[in-house]
Amino acid sequence: MEWEVPINRNKNKILNIIVIVIALFIANNIYKASTKTFDAVKEVKNKELEKNALLDNMGKLNKKINSYKNFLNKKDISLVINNISDIAKDSGVKIVMVRPEEEQASLMYVKYSFNFGIIVSDYKALGRFISKLESSSDVYIVDTINISPEFASEEGSLKGLTVSLKVSTFLFKDNRWK
Q1: What is the CATH number of domain 77-172?
Q2: CB count, 10 Å around CB of 69?
Q3: What is the rounded CA–CA span in Å between residue 98 and residue 77?
Q4: 3-state helix, strand, coil in the chain (%, to 5)
Q5: Domain boundaries of the chain, sorted by first residue
Q6: pLDDT digits (tens, 9 = 90+) for 5-31
Q7: Are 161 and 96 in contact (CB under 8 A)?
């Protein structure tokens, strides 16, 4: 009986404490669940940000590829020989023979090659010609070069150089990248 009086007197307080403890327990469980959900959403957000960064990077790379493709495709194959002839004139080189080779096609580009026979006065003129050719705004690559010096028969001095060289250029043909 002695215990009944304090229990009856504090019955409301004990009931309130039990309700508060239960409420705290439920609130703690809700907090843990919402924290897990928040962390999962945060992780998904980070993954999506990474994907966006990769997509942006891919877009930039695609723009670069398209700019290179457009740069390489500006030239017309029929004008290649004219451009090389102009470069030869500027360099003091005389073209005596031009022979196109069969084009080499791959999935994304076509390689056009030309064999040239040229005559130059000295190695400096040849160097100027090759330098201007490979630094041209159009892309030309000297694949092979054979040099034969010609000497004056009486003096033994250099009369000039006979040079055969193979020059290649490229055009993209794949339209998937546009």
Answers
A1: 3.30.70.60
A2: 19
A3: 14
A4: 55, 25, 20
A5: 9-71, 77-172
A6: 566 677 788 888 888 899 889 989 888
A7: no
